[in-house]
Amino acid sequence: MDLPEYVSVVFIVTTLATLYFLYKASKNSKLLLLICSLWILIQGAIAYTGFYTVINTVPPRFALLILPAFVLIAFLFNTVRGKSFLDSFDQQWLTYLHVVRIPVEMVLYWLFIAEYVPELMTFEGRNLDILSGLSAPIIAYMTFNKNLNRKIILFWNFICLGLLFNIVINAILAAPSAFQVQAFDQPNVGVFYFPFVWLPCFIVPVVLLSHLVCIRQIIKK
C-alpha cells in the first residue's frame, strides 16, 4: 500500500490499545488475552500474504475476517458459562474502550485520502462514529464518578451501537463483492490489507461486544 508509515503505526497502536482495554475489562483474563493475541497474529499473517486482496472468490474471502468473531460473540451470549463470563466484565473499562474509535476514524480518513476507502466511510461522509469515541470518556467519568443515571448510560450505548451498525453496513455495501451497491468509483479495499484487516476482524467485534455487555449488565440491574 502506498501510505505514509505513520498510518500503519497509528493503527497498530490502536489495535494494541483495544486489546489492552479488553484485557482490563475482563479483569485480566489470561485466556482471553491469549485467544485474542493469537487471532490478531494469525489474521495479520494471512493478510500480509495478500490473501484478502483477492476479491473475485465465492464466497468472498473477507467473510473469514468477519464471521468467526461474531459467531464467538453469539456463543458467549447463548451459553451459561459464556453469560457468566460476560457478566464479570468491568463496565468502566468497557466504556473507556470506545476512545479507540477516535484514532480508527483518523485512519479511515487517511485511507480515504489515499483512495483505499470511500468518503462515505469517513466523518466527512456518513460515518459519525467518532462521536462515540469523543463522548466515551465523558460518559465513563460521569457514570463512575458522578453517578450518572443508568437510563442515560443505556441510551448512550444504544445510540453508539446504532452508529457502529451504520458504518459496518456501509463498509460492507461499499466493498467489492456481490453485495456491493455503492462507492464503485472508490470501493472499500483498505481493510483487506495488513494491518487494517484488524479493524473488521478484531476492533469492530470488540466494540460491538463492549456495547452488548454493558447493555446486558445495565438491564440486569
Task: Record the SSE blueprint.
Blueprint: H1 5-25, H2 30-48, H3 63-77, H4 80-87, H5 91-96, H6 101-113, H7 130-145, H8 150-174, H9 198-220
Helix pairs in contact: 1-6, 1-9, 3-9, 6-7, 7-8, 8-9
Brief rundown of the structure:
This protein has 221 residues and is an all-alpha fold. Helices cover 66% and strands 0% of the residues.
Provide a descriptive summary of the structure in words.
By secondary structure, this protein is an all-alpha fold. The chain has one domain (5-220). Helix content is 66%, strand content 0%. It has 9 helices and no strands. Helix 1 (5-25) packs antiparallel against helix 6 (101-113), helix 1 packs parallel to helix 9 (198-220) and helix 7 (130-145) runs antiparallel to helix 8 (150-174). The longest helix has 25 residues, at 150-174. It is globular, with a radius of gyration of 17 Å. The termini are far apart.
- Beta-strand content bin: under 5%
So what's the overall shape?
globular
Major sheet = none
Q: How many domains would you count in the coordinates?
A: 1
Briefly note the structural class of the backbone: mainly alpha
According to DSSP, the number of beta strands is 0
Indicate the mean pLDDT. 94
Name the poorly predicted regions. none
Number of helices: 9
> SSE string, helix = H, strand = E?
HHHHHHHHH
Radius of gyration: 17 Å
- How far do the termini sit from each other? 48 Å
Helical residues, percent: 55-70%
